[in-house]
Amino acid sequence: MQLPTHLLPVLVLLSAQPLGRALVPGPCKSPIETQCNFLCDCTDCSDEAQCGYSRASPGLGTPVTCDFEQDNCGWQDISTSGYRWVRDRARAQPEGPVAHTDHTQGTDLGWYMGVGTHRGTEAAVAALRSPVLREAGPTCELRLWYHAVSGDVAGLQLELTHSAETLTLWQSSGPWSSGWQELAVTTGRIPGDFRVTFSATRNATHKGAVALDDVEFWDCGLPTPQASCALAHHRCRNAACIEPHQLCDGEDNCGDRSDEDPLTCSHHTGTNFETGLGLWSHTEGPAWNLSTSGPKGSAWPRRDHSRNSAQGSFLVSTAKPGNPAVLLSPQLQASGSRNCSLIFYHYLHGSKDAHLELLLWMQGPGAPQAPVLLRHRHGELGAAWVRDQVDIRSAHPFRILLTGETGPGGIVGLDDLILSDHCTVIPETSACDPPNPTSPVGAPLSPQSSLQGSCEPGQLACGDLCVPPEQLCDFQPQCAQGEDERECGTTDFEAAAAGGWQDSSIGRLQWGRQEAQGIRATAGHFLSLQRAWGQLRAEARALTPVLGPSGPHCELHLAYYFHSHPRGFLALALVESGSRELVWQAPGDSSGAWTVVRVLLGAHRRPFQLELVALVDVEAPGLQGAGIDNVTMRDCSPTVTTETDREVTCNFEWGMCGWHLGHLTDVHWRRVESHSSGNDHTTGQGFFMLLDPAEPPARGRHANLLTGPQVPAVPEQCLSFWFQLHGPRIGTLRLAMQRDGEEEIQLWSGSGTHGNRWHQAWATLRHQLGPSSKYQLLFQGLRDGYDGIMALDDVTVRPGTCPAPQRCSFEESTCSFSTGGQGLWKRQNSASGTATKGPWADHTTETAQGHYMIVATSPDMLPQGHVASLTSEEHQPLLHPTCLTFWYHLSLRSPGTLRVRVEEGRQHQTLSISEHGGPAWRLGSMDVWAEQAWKVVFEAVAAGVEHSYVALDDILLQDGPCPQPGSCDFESGLCGWSQVAWPGLGGYSWDWSSGATPSRYSQPAMDHTLGTETGHFAFFETSVLGSGGRAAWLRSEPLPATKASCLRFWYHMGFPEHFYKGELRVLLVSTRGQLVAWAQGGQLRHQWLEAQVEVVSSEEFQVVFEATLSGQPVQGPIALDDIEYLPRQHCQWPAPSPEDTAVPMSVAAAVSGALVFLTLLVLLGLTGWCWLRKGGGWPFWRNRHSAAPGFDNILFNADQVTLPAAVTGDP
């Protein structure tokens, strides 16, 4: 039960208390007994380093944390098999990470401790143990986040070992929800040294992938010695100070047990149930049972409170609702003007239907007949012993009644009942029957407490209806008077039921109904923040009953006041599937006046709950406080519709039209206005939909933007939209359609960067008309990349089919290509095990999962001379010359001829490709001129060769004429150059932009081709590489073997002057290996520079531009423009200019430079001689793969690469 991540700093600051112990100036050597005790004894907190956390607590009440971002914080793997814990992150495991993101950052850049899938068959345990920790206080709580997939792990366990015993703090065998799950356990007071161990168990059927992150120790430090104590505070023997209510409360708050000294507490009467019930007694009916640690895996307490031991005793009740167990105190004298206080520790866990009530039963003449309810706890409070205190003033003798009941699987527990010195026991003279514990006075404040009649337990009776629990609070009334929706969050707090809101606080603050008074409100009641007796978490929490399902228009309206200066917060969270999402937070500068707000909740599955969370600095001067009133849930039924729901066409200028956010994950699209790093498409200054996959605190896998149910008016519609996919490692954008009762239909998808510009895409919607043929549209942004943005704008729907798309990767569909009557062309991937043998990977994703089109040209499938056609839909007329590019793959055995024909009426343009195949995809291109509508036809003409095929992928139309192979000015795109987002290099891609286009990444102000800010270039921002990113590749199409060719290009680099970090390299890559042909480090010149590389190769190869770092990340772009590959031409080296040769310098500088140069020559000579003596090659060689013999004889000469004649002969 953790606050949203960005609220935690507020809580940390608020809970901090000043240290009384003087910090030792560093460096310091603290005694061993003060190390790892959750407190800083040294100024630099070095005494708390590597103690299972990386940031030590600056004071009491603040957490010490390990997020594993820098190191393992002292946690060690103590496993005895190959099933072991390692510090890891998702990006380092491209084949299947333990978790796709860490919990701290919510991206694959962050680190966690993980134990991967183990291939063995024997059962094994992976154990991760903390360093030695010391002296945990009684309020100590351990919180962590774990990631486990049901079916992967046999069991998880958290243990604490100290000198006396090993305590099982938590144990589970699942099932576990998807994603990161929070675990919070209290340790209780642990004197001396102890360790914590988190372990995972695997067996033959459970392979055991688990991850652990964000380990936090909360409120674990003991109080430190003080020179003096505040007024009314108790001074311990060790000079620490504690609050008055902590004296004689059954907990070692001082740390030396002096606050629980028998002499000091001699007038208190405590019952710890170690030897029985003491002064307390049972009534007839269900009983409170004495117990010790219960069955493993149940909600039973694993320790008592008195001894914090599995051998300790306590009381438990499993009484069913409506028939509670009752514990009765002895008869006590009238307290008069003094308080008789009862301190007690309770435990409610395992059921949301658990109830614990404390009632005052006054006796004697004139006393009320019915018991008075003094305290009521309800619901799930976690596996913890929670402190409470009741102060009683009674003019009559009285007894105290404690009643407990719970739902299936739940436990209500009691321990350490302590009566204060003003509670005087009356000797028993006569017995009398206790009141009926099921009387309405003590009834829980929930809708289930209404009259049941003849209905089953848990059902609500209204008239002749019995409403089952799953239909309560579902925003669709079943009862005529709406009784089933009455206590479901909507309330003005005038009724005691409070709209079903229940306080679930376990700390020093709580939510409670209060009558309005003073200047803040008029007459009536509201929900206010109040002091409480709990000892655990500081914040106050209140929950609604289980709600849902809700519709997309669901809103919450409420009035609030909030004032906590200078620290504090008031927030509303949505609790769903074990996780919390912040949906609203009061501004930090709230004045304290009542304010009305509206909060969009949206569509959620059942069950979900709303939770109010607040914290104020009650010790600060002034009117510190928070209140809630007039809560209203509006339009929450899933059946609620509005006029705008049918507006699919939308430019987002005035709202979201019929589109709404999906709230099933915590990742959301946002409607934003044009800003410095992004403009909309409609006007350049308006609104658009944006998704930043790295925006905290999201942890979900995707964000959804969807319509409500739509009724089609025509059989075919064309949906067009404009999108952006921009960034060095952006994920996937998908468009899908969902028909009622059918599986989702994938219409379109795009992955990776498409350049820093808006692109248009189309998808044809095909419908079966009818009153029940409803459909929904869904744009889904996948978080499978975290550096970049996704954006949507100008969505339009019109009748009819769409024109042929300008881009097709075949990942989602055939893009409406027609395969003719024979249907010989097929869409497939190599991972599916289909019959047609083809390339092992597609061109788009370069994986076996990627799709492409293929036709088998073997004689049994396509006889020699026969033709298999693949025909596009009709394209619109072209206003400008256009380049049609496509990637093709031919089998090694000649499949025949691939003909590409552009049909414009009776005019045809034809390109024929007939060559031997190879291992690589090759680029084909042809210039297209078409003043009328036109189609493109791909024809495979078979040669009659067995086991042959032709494959196609990544068909693209780009403005402008086709460039020469290996050349590009980047004005229309990347030409034939491909971004290679290889996982082994970090998964980064080069991008494409212009200086005038807003971008969040630094880039050149103008290009080289046009010399203006509207010109385009390829670029890469090296700062995104991070500590684990290696490089980004920009790769050419395959180029034929050559005896002499020249590669010219212009590059732009800009790094801070004293941070020589970035580097641009030119690699030559072939089947025989790769080498560095040219390299240049970063420099602060901010201008375009020309470079040339002369290349010779005896086989087909590719040129790769690699952007990389040689040190820690630093902001600086590397850009490329005007790449020109000149086959069969030597580079023309320009003559040195006067500026290059006539550089003025002083004589002293010249002499010094000459001496340095001569010294370097001598050193280089000696180094080379030693290297040769050892049989090595020249150290300038850069052959990254030792298994690349084809490049062993490469020699370097300035910017030229020359292959000796012995290896450059024609094949």
Automatic annotation (TrEMBL):
Disulfide bonds join 229-241, 236-254, 473-488. Residues 64-222, 269-425, 489-638, 648-804, 806-964, 966-1133 form the MAM domain. The chain crosses the membrane at residues 1147-1172. It comes from the Eukaryota. One of its GO terms (cellular component) is membrane. Gene3D superfamilies: 2.60.120.200, Low-density Lipoprotein Receptor (4.10.400.10). It holds the Pfam family MAM. Residues 1-22 form the signal peptide. Keywords: Disulfide bond, Membrane, Signal, Transmembrane, Transmembrane helix. CDD domains: LDLa, MAM. PANTHER family: APICAL ENDOSOMAL GLYCOPROTEIN, APICAL ENDOSOMAL GLYCOPROTEIN PRECURSOR. This is Apical endosomal glycoprotein. It comes from Octodon degus.
